[in-house]
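Input set for joint prediction.
Command: fold jointly, output tokens.
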Amino acid sequence: MKAVWLRAGRCLLLAGLLAALSACASLPGEGLSRSDPWETVNRRVFEFNEMVDKAAVKPTAQIYQAVVPRLIRSGVDNFFGNIADFWSSANLALQVKPRPALEMGMRVLVNTFMGLGGILDVADEMGLERSSVEDFGQTLGYWGIRSGPYLVLPLLGPSTLRDATGLALDFKDSGVSMVWRDARDRNIATGVQLLNARVKLLNAGRVLDEIALDKYLLLRDAYLARRKSQIYDGDPPEDDAAPAAFRRLVR
Amino acid sequence: MHRRSLILALSLLGLPALGAEALTADAFVRQVSSDVIEAVKVDKAIQAGDVNRIRALVDAKVMPHVNFQRMTATSVGPQWRAATAEQQKRMLEEFKTLMVNTYSGALTQVKDQAVMVKPLRAGSTELSELVVRTEVRGKGDPIQLDYRLEKAGEGWKIYDVNVGGFWLVDAYKGQFAKDLSVGGLDALIARLSDKNKSLAAAPKN
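tokens >
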């Protein structure tokens, strides 16, 4: 546990640095198109991702879904969900939300010790449902750090400068890297984790393709709106003057 | 688990009592969503992705509760008022087809979900426009689904929907902007018409 708090401290330090960074990077007035100054490059990476997805990732996900029994798939999903819950709990604590942090922590304890190390989601049956998924990018946003420019990451997809920085920490300090120490195991685990995430998106992708006139724009706008909504716990303000942390104090 | 069955019980209890009495906004949302979900759950053809059946359901149970004119006008923006009646009519038609497609795609995902309507914000019962927040709970993580409602006579009409933090009108504004600025409303209508045609021709699986 001590290591986690050390890491948390380091995260906060980094957050400060990032605040300065994103202040330089963010443009006056965050209109949707102005939040994407790197659109040309982003579109290229997006095309690349679409290509890789179509040729390799999606078929693999479909095979995984067809070949692996549902019981095992849900075990895998629960297992990674449990790791994510642990990280959510830490992030809720960093956002000074003690009650949800404790509830999420309880979920992790219950599932780890009574759910065969997280393979079963027994906490859900007990009424301890997963209320949210929190990552470090959200924590940074909660404390008022702007998203910075929109950024499409190779293979991983939509992000922003802030969220990509958060993601680097998510990868390094949480999740699979805490469970698997060996680099090779870690890579395999990360692969399975991403595959699991992709499987869950198989149907959503079809809906997206059906409504989009410009899929790049739709994904971008959806991502930016969703992140803002997550940071404000589902109730974002029309203008983004005050950070979520501040708004909570005022209420 | 308890909550889920409670909501279901409440929504079922509520149904016969609705009748002519004016509904509160949250009760309206609860009624419409449980209507749709129940209809999907008993219909094997819809679950299998039968597009015509889904369209019929959306036309019957959803569209009457949507102020479609307003949704289209705000998605298009300033150019809507400058458009001729003929253009507006064609735009409404194409946009509606696209929306029904969108909604139908989403409906094929309905399996064991229940909709939890959150309590209205204090003091909002007197408003003529308000937001009702709901959460769709099923196997995976809960999905945020909010509605913007306006008063329409004794009842309510939906004029925007928020899926997972993203308002639909904002989504379409972003999608429409480029065609509108390059070729105006006619270009957009042509684009939507193409899109709808390709969707109709595409094999459904």
